[in-house]
Amino acid sequence: MFLTLLGGARNTVPLNEIYFLQASTGDIPGAPTTSRWTFWNLCPVGDDGKSDCGKSHPDFPFDPPSHRNFDTTTNIPEAFIGTKHYFLTSRFMFPFLIIALFFGVVSLFTGFLAMCTRVGSYLSSLMAWIALIFQIITTCLMTAVFVQGRNRFNANGQHATLGAKSFGFMWTSVACLFLSCILYCLGGSVGSKESGYSGREHRRRGFFSSQRSNSVRSNKEANP
């Protein structure tokens, strides 16, 4: 989740290899030959095949014809023109991911309490469930908007591909958060300290009471 969030923020490995969508945009006036969209910028691709991003802008939108991207409608797929769908969908991704990260980090730290108390397990599970909900929303928005964007560029004769790393990171995070929720719940529901202790007490009482009864029985037999 952190790698996807920071992808494109700096031109260092691996951040300059993480992006949502790559498209051939050489026929668009003023656009680079190949463009990549990240959370922070619209980045050209260098000769080494890595992103060469400029100044970072948090929550950068995916909106090709707008002034934030190419600022032209020439050779832009018609599906992008006259709609706010791509702009709004891509903009909501950023805050939802920040929320998911916040609760995910809280769940990580409260998870240390889960080793000591069942309450810690349930609290960590609650934080993980909240993180999972927002992570699913973010990942679904990302998948919807950039898969549609890829299809629009390809239909316009401009080859486009999805960023395998960012999609892999995000969907893997969904799976890991789901497993965390389940395991935290299991950790809270098993191993009750109280029931184990009372069980030992019963066993102790049973042992000593049987010893006393055997002693009384032996005394009666010896002294009828």
UniProtKB/TrEMBL annotation:
Pfam families named in the record: SUR7
InterPro entries: SUR7/Rim9-like_fungi (IPR009571)
GO terms of biological process kind: cortical actin cytoskeleton organization; endocytosis; fungal-type cell wall organization; septin cytoskeleton organization
Superkingdom, taxonomy of origin: Eukaryota
Keywords for this protein: Membrane, Transmembrane, Transmembrane helix
Transmembrane segment boundaries: 92-114, 126-147, 167-186
Assigned GO CC terms: cell cortex; membrane raft; plasma membrane
Biased composition (Polar residues): 208-217
Region listing for Disordered, in residue ranges: 193-224
RNA-binding is among the record's keywords: no
Family matches, as PANTHER family: PROTEIN SUR7
Protein name, entry field: Actin cortical patch SUR7/pH-response regulator pali
